[in-house]
Amino acid sequence: MKNNIVVITGSESGIGNAASKIFLDNGAYVIGLDKHDRESFSNNINYKLIQTDLSKLVELKNKIRYIHEKFVKVDILVNCAGVTSLTPVFGVTPEEWDSVMDINLRSMFFCCKYMLMGMVEREKGKIINIASNAGKTGGEMVGPHYSASKAGVISLTISLARFAAKYNINVNCVAPGPTETSMTSEWDKSSIEAITNKIPLKRLGKPEEIAEAIYFLASNKSDFITGEIMDVNGGILMD
Ligand SMILES: NC(=O)c1ccc[n+]([C@@H]2O[C@H](COP(=O)([O-])OP(=O)(O)OC[C@H]3O[C@@H](n4cnc5c(N)ncnc54)[C@H](O)[C@@H]3O)[C@@H](O)[C@H]2O)c1
Q1: How many whole angstroms from 220 Cα to the centroid of ligand 1?
Q2: What residues have CB less than 8 Å from 219, skipping those under 6 apart?
């Protein structure tokens, strides 16, 4: 990973934070795009946080233009930023629908689009999007808008993989099952127990375990893989 420049959205927490750590540990330069600054890796000169609200597209475009001007090339894009919602069907308002879609799907597409512009020119790049097993199953705990956004991520990944293959760019997806981050820390104890019982490996995933799959898909060990939706879920869905 030495000399690779990696952009990671949602780098300040959970899966994106664990992914940032593994890239940094392996010698990459990591540019984080996150709404919050939790002072991650503050002593590491190979990490730069650019604080951004990804749902604001003009701001996002400007930040990515800045990245292209300052760093010239971006080798890898990892789209981890996302929000969850447990609101059930009758509680979902148009505003809540839009806010979940805006960050989970719309901003992901535009991150990919703006980054692809540089990657296509150089005919080199890897993109890894984070979906969820809820995008395949509809989810059990989460709301319909969250599951729909993640189904969108899966389809978006395949569509972009078809587009980008001719430019030697791989686009893949990791679909985690329930994972120990701030997202699941909101769930009550009995819900966690119920979901754990349904996981054949009888535990939630750790962010570092999802990060390992991301890292593999970003490395040259996966050069012949594109359009793949990789499940990392303790067996809760086997398809
Ligand atoms: N934790 C799970 O059980 C689980 C399961 C399946 C999929 N996922 C997916 O994994 C990804 C990472 O989730 P996590 O569990 O690490 O959650 P997390 O809440 O720990 O991290 C999400 C990060 O995204 C950032 N973010 C949110 N909205 C943003 C915005 N508008 N602009 C910029 N940054 C923003 C947050 O600041 C945070 O740092 C998400 O896409 C999530 O849907 C998580």
Answers
A1: 26
A2: 1
